[in-house]
Write a structure and sequence with these properties.
Number of strands: 10
CATH architecture: Alpha-Beta Barrel
Distance between the termini: 8 Å
CATH class: Alpha Beta
CATH topology: TIM Barrel
Strand order of the largest sheet: 1-4-6-7-8-9-10
Order of helices and strands: HEHEEHEHEHEHEHHEEHEH
């Protein structure tokens, strides 16, 4: 009961990349960089196990950014001539690559880290991929002329990599879709269809992560403008409840999401965020168990998975480790309390 996992990213060690940055520069190059990525993956597998995390992640140690780490392996994209574009409905601007031709995978994307992690843990292993809608919102199109058509092309590539990850022994494949929380009308219109394309044929557990974003200033300012209750999920949860996805990952602790909205995910496992990634304050096991108890009013306890609100990539490493330890202890306390 109450298995534990993380939403995805974990901080990169300072010897691998710049610390405390969402887009860190690598501090190694060539063969040293490739070896360092695998060393960092192994480091975080061990730290997660020590903290009592049941479903461990590679921590996204081999990619600078959760979207661009995938795009680097795709033909048909021009990284040399990036353009500035508003993303997440113009919440902030970013320099993004351009789609200039038909999209194809150059080669496997996450084979090295997935196989390395699988060889070094006996626990369930989770790998994350960016979702098709979020990719389409994070890149400029100069070829397809239709955002949905382009997103479906990306969904096909994601499915190709996801099937290979399953063959590598990955137990859970999660698609990160923060754009679902921005373009709510499109979720039922084509977002779920793209998600189904990405998970087509998979037999492993599938998940989608939807959130209000990393704890960066642009996201914090946006969240502060949303009022006393964040009800965006009310528009998209019914479509997700009808979908073929197995799990939905969302935030709970220190958010303004009414927990009762989780009841709209009837039939799905809910990865409940009980660790706040927007503060360095470390949660207590008591706080975590309390959030789990509150969620149990709306989600059957056998469907609750204890998770982080979002990725922890920009966080200090020592804080992230302490939060993982709190996550493990908080879930253990909840098992004692609510068994």
């Amino acid at each position: 009961m109450f298995p534990t996992t993380v939403a995805g990213s974990l901080p990169k060690p300072s010897w691998l990349a710049e610390p405390n940055k969402l887009w860190p520069a690598w501090r190694l190059s060539g063969a040293d960089l490739e070896a360092g990525k695998l060393d960092a993956t192994l480091l975080w597998i061990k730290l997660q196990e020590d903290a009592g995390i049941d479903i461990v992640s590679d921590g996204e140690q081999s990619r600078q950014h959760f979207v661009h780490g995938f795009l680097e392996y795709v033909d048909g994209i021009d990284f040399a001539h990036k353009v500035e574009m508003g993303i997440r409905d113009n919440r902030y601007k970013a320099m993004v690559p351009i789609v200039t031709g038909e999209l194809r995978l150059k080669r496997r994307v996450h084979q090295a880290e997935a196989r390395h992690a699988r060889a070094h843990t006996k626990r369930k292993l989770k790998i994350t991929l960016p979702g098709a809608m979020t990719i389409a919102d994070t890149i400029a199109d100069r070829f397809y002329g239709d955002k949905v058509k382009m997103a479906m092309a990306f969904a096909g590539l994601l499915n190709e990599e996801a099937r290979a990850l399953e063959a590598d022994g990955v137990d859970v494949i999660q698609f990160d879709e923060p754009a679902f929380n921005v373009f709510m009308n499109d979720v039922a219109g084509w977002g779920v269809e793209a998600l189904h394309r990405a998970i087509d044929g998979l037999k492993c557990t599938t998940a989608v992560h939807i959130c209000y974003g990393y704890g960066i200033k642009a996201n914090i300012d946006w969240k502060n403008a949303l009022g006393s209750e964040w009800r965006q999920y009310e528009q998209i949860f019914p479509a997700l409840a009808k979908s073929r996805i197995d799990q939905v990952s969302i935030e709970a602790i220190n958010s303004r999401v009414p927990l009762k909205l989780m009841s709209l995910l009837d039939g799905k496992d809910v990865l409940v965020g009980v660790i706040d990634i927007a503060t360095d304050k470390v949660e207590t096991p008591e706080q975590i168990a309390g959030v789990i108890g509150d969620v149990m009013k709306h989600v059957p306890k056998e469907r609750i998975v204890c998770c982080t609100n979002c990725g922890m990539a920009p966080m200090r490493r020592d804080v992230a480790v302490a939060k993982l330890e709190a996550l493990g202890k908080g879930a253990a306390l909840a098992r004692e309390r609510y068994a």
